[in-house]
Amino acid sequence: MKKGIIVYNSGMKKVKNLYGVVENLVEAGKKASTECIPIGNGDFVLDYKDKEVSYPILEKIQPDFVLFLDKDLVLARGLEAMGYPIFNSPSAIEICDNKLLTWQALKTISPMAKTLPGPMQYSFYPLSRPFYDQVVSTLGSPFILKEAQGSFGEQVYSISSYEEMNAVLSKINGRPYLFQENISHSFGRDIRVVLVGDEILGAIERRNPKDFRANIALGGTSSPIVLTEEQKSVALEAHRALGLQFSGVDLLYGEQGPLVCEVNSNLSYLGFQQATGIPVGEKILSHILSILP
Prior knowledge:
- The chain has helices spanning 16-31, 56-61, 73-81, 90-97, 99-106, 129-139, 162-172, 229-241, 270-276, 280-291; strands spanning 3-8, 35-40, 47-49, 52-54, 65-68, 86-87, 115-117, 143-147, 156-159, 177-180, 189-196, 199-207, 221-224, 246-254, 257-264.
- By secondary structure, it is α+β, with helices and mostly antiparallel strands.
- It starts with a strand and ends with a helix.
């Protein structure tokens, strides 16, 4: 019998739709005669021997693989250095968790909205009027300002004025960010494509008539959708380019075709699973077991 650990963020255990993914994978493991043991990142008590950090908890379990559902890159790389097969890989998680890195990795590969990186700030300082004018000249108005790291659409802002831009930057207070073209054709709607291995499991369309962001967490609704061949191609291309074993690729409706919005390596798939009836957890675990040595 194979044995794996599911690493999750200890602070997320009380968030039902996030920890529910962990519970779903544990149940999927039972169906596949595979023991999946959940461990919060805060439960990896450290030891230090011969100039190396080790995790005594793993000596007792000796897992065959790691399903890494957190974004704790130091821990992920530590486990990788110890030789454990990790899914998704730390490098893929790092790129997906940072929208600036995602844009840099995909801008010559996948169609994306026009994007400008924000100047690095250690703490807030107002950007100049000429800088704002150049952003508007490139992206149009209103444009989108996004924190580089964030989830559930909560760190995404529509900007219509110079004053509004600097007010948001003051709120962000030095965290990395980017500017992006507002895809008005996709107002309040997007597509989440779920992929495992090289297979597209399916897709849902998310809609929110009251907000430019379609996220379910912000009041959006979802329903299954049949993808066009172009949508399939764009999603699969982004998934492969980032070296992912499983992912959720978010697409926008561009006037000339689908645009990649972001790629999620740690996807919360329960809503998709409920909407489509597709057992995502079982598919993920089956794929991982198929590629283990």
